[in-house]
Amino acid sequence: MSYKQNNFFSQVVKSILCTGIFLFTITGCESDDDSDDTLGSVRLYNASANAPEIFLTVDENIDEYDDDEADDFEKTFSSIELGESTGNFELEAKEYYVELAWQDDDSSYRDDLEVIYQTEHKITKDNIHLIVIAEDIQSPTVLSYDIAEIDDDDDADDELFNLSLLNMHPWSDGIDIYLSKSDESFNQAKLLGEYNYTELSDNQKLEIDEYVFYITSAGSEEVLYQSSEIDYQYTNQYVMVIRENPGVGDSPFVIDRVSSSNVELYQHEGDSAQFRTFNAIVNHDLLPNYQGEFALSLNSVDDSIEISATEFGEFSNSVGTAEGDYSADLSIPDTGEIILQNHLITLAENTDKTIFFYLEEDDVDLDGDGDVDEDGDGYVDEVEITVKSLVVDNSTSASIYNHEIKIINFVDNDDFNAVGFYFVRSDELIETASLYQNVSYSSPAAITLVNNTYSIYAVAQDGSSDVILVSTQLTLDENSEAMFLILEENIDAPSGYNVKFANQKGY
Hints:
InterPro entries: EF_Hand_1_Ca_BS. The chain has 507 residues and is mostly beta strands. It has one helix and 36 strands. The protein folds into four domains: 4-148, Immunoglobulin-like, CATH 2.60.40; 153-266, Immunoglobulin-like (Sandwich), CATH 2.60.40; 273-393, Immunoglobulin-like, CATH 2.60.40; 395-507, Immunoglobulins (Immunoglobulin-like), CATH 2.60.40. The longest helix is centred in the first third of the chain and has 6 residues, at 153-158. Residues 1-36 have low confidence and may be disordered.
């Protein structure tokens, strides 16, 4: 009971049922009452893995220059990324133009967006018109589903909620979806149904309780996905959307619970995680045996991982492991001297992380009077060092039109406490650049850049002067990945500093 339409072509994927889903170019079962005082609602869900954030515009009259229609409805909703949805928005039951677009420049005004889809849609009385954008954003598939809004007075008394399932995973064999109470096993689970790609189920009424979902290939009993306990506390109406897992875990599936107001993501229970390390520990007189290389030991109750050596300024290889809480110890390979011990590293299911290790130097106030230069010779009397860890989540975005840059500043300088990073386009100067981040030492910041060529400047303020620590150039295109930009001290560089770029995904 589902139908699929591309921007430029359409394909019937299941037989047409009057109660459900419509091809945009086919007139479905119309409401018995199309008067203007009847209401339906509209929402957008983003299932396109390589899409940027998508804007939905609903426009009653696409001809904006028609003065006679000045009161026509028009609204552009906030953008949504993969796995997100706009809320349900009520509209008069009639036809509207639906426009999907993404932001390819600084402005998010509708007229400045890059439109990728524009077609009339019919909003019908007492129905949720769910629009789904899916597949390759360069030639997206856009689907629509009319879902009856359920407002049964008996649901509250009977403690029931309403549930439908939408399969947006192109699993070739189709999938079976099972459901059990949270205190039951898969052997006790109930088969909700078999669903092909883009298929939406009928609504089912279930008792308010905690449940676990299971996914298998159609006709198989091998569990490919098992959710954590999902608590249904209210008599709401939900759509459970099954889609491809963009993370690093073992299961190919994730599930989004879509309600009238929000979306909650559920990973495969106990899915594996992945991490790698980066060595930002500089040589220091107070760490005499350290020669720019460390070994890592990561231990949990059930697992132990060893990385023999990571050199200064380098990443280790990525390591897959079970989710869990780990204790991290760093040592000097040749001597076994411990330089960091018992740092908590939490690796949640289906996550990819980078663990940065760095050295922090602090001035010592020997007598607690706030003066670190007791003898007045103009120098700090004593310093102490600490090796620290910084855990950063790597982006799972596969957007081809814009890319996340996580900026890590590992320059510890008493003359400035932050560095400004400016991403300057061909028609800008540093002074006029609208894309910038001020980044403190060891405190990551993120910026999202659309495909373009940027001159990048790391600028520090020393007294009244702005000083360019380093400059470089970066070109982003459809083949680019989410990246780290790491600022480091480098005595061999002309300025004493350099920047390093690396893909956030270590695989």
